[in-house]
Amino acid sequence: MARDPERLHGSHVVSRQELEAAFAEDPDDDGDGRRFRLRLRHAVVLVVLLVLVAGGIGVAFAIQKGYLSIPQAESSPQKTSVCPSGTFTPLKPSAVKVNVFNATDRRGLAGNVAAQLKARKFVVGAVTNRDLSLNTPVAVISGKDGHAAALTVQRQLQGADYYQDGRSDGTVDVILFQGFAAVTPTAKVVQGPGKLLCPRELAAASTPAK
């Protein structure tokens, strides 16, 4: 059986003449048609570029005028201390009025501490229970005009944490919580000027961020 040179394994083999015919220029397509298509392509590209440029100018104008804002990466909030930074001179206990509150389930705790403070010449006011929860063994609270008085009281109580509120007088509140241990022995009470202490801030600073 004669082998067909234009077929290979049953498939048609494209000849040189067929390739030339396939890629030959269309005789009906004159130079004007090619030039039109080329101009049309250039026009499309130019329109796209103009749209992009106009869009960029519009975005820049909107940002400048404040109509559009670009989200910025949030920075970590800086923690500020609420503990007074000044140095205060303790007062004589007789010049300090202190209220004692028991926020625990230990009966008679406020009365016991109040009695010890009174024995040290403090002026004791209210002595009662209080429903409150703070992560501290004992809170010493005063207004901004009671910093020196608060320092005087804080030094009498082991582990005391200072808090400031909006009161306008020089009174001091003591709130006893479950972690409260004892009144500081008289011989160990620090003397002389010093700073109010806020141990909770030190504890928060030493806790690694999650």
Summarize the structure.
This protein is of the alpha/beta class. It has 5 helices and 7 strands; from the N terminus they run E-E-H-H-E-H-E-E-H-E-E-H.
Q: How does the SSE layout of this entry go?
A:
Elements: E1 7-8, E2 11-12, H1 16-22, H2 31-65, E3 97-102, H3 109-119, E4 123-129, E5 138-142, H4 147-154, E6 160-164, E7 172-176, H5 199-206
Parallel strand pairs: 3-4, 3-7, 5-6
Antiparallel strand pairs: 1-2, 5-7
Provide structural commentary.
The chain has 210 residues and is α/β, with parallel strands linked by helices. Helix content is 33%, strand content 15%. The chain has helices spanning 16-22, 31-65, 109-119, 147-154, 199-206; strands at residues 7-8, 11-12, 97-102, 123-129, 138-142, 160-164, 172-176. Strands 4-3-7-5-6 form a 5-stranded mixed sheet, with helices on one face. A two-stranded antiparallel ribbon has the order 1-2. It is rod-shaped, with a radius of gyration of 43 Å. The two termini are 85 Å apart. The model is unreliable at 73-79 (pLDDT under 50).
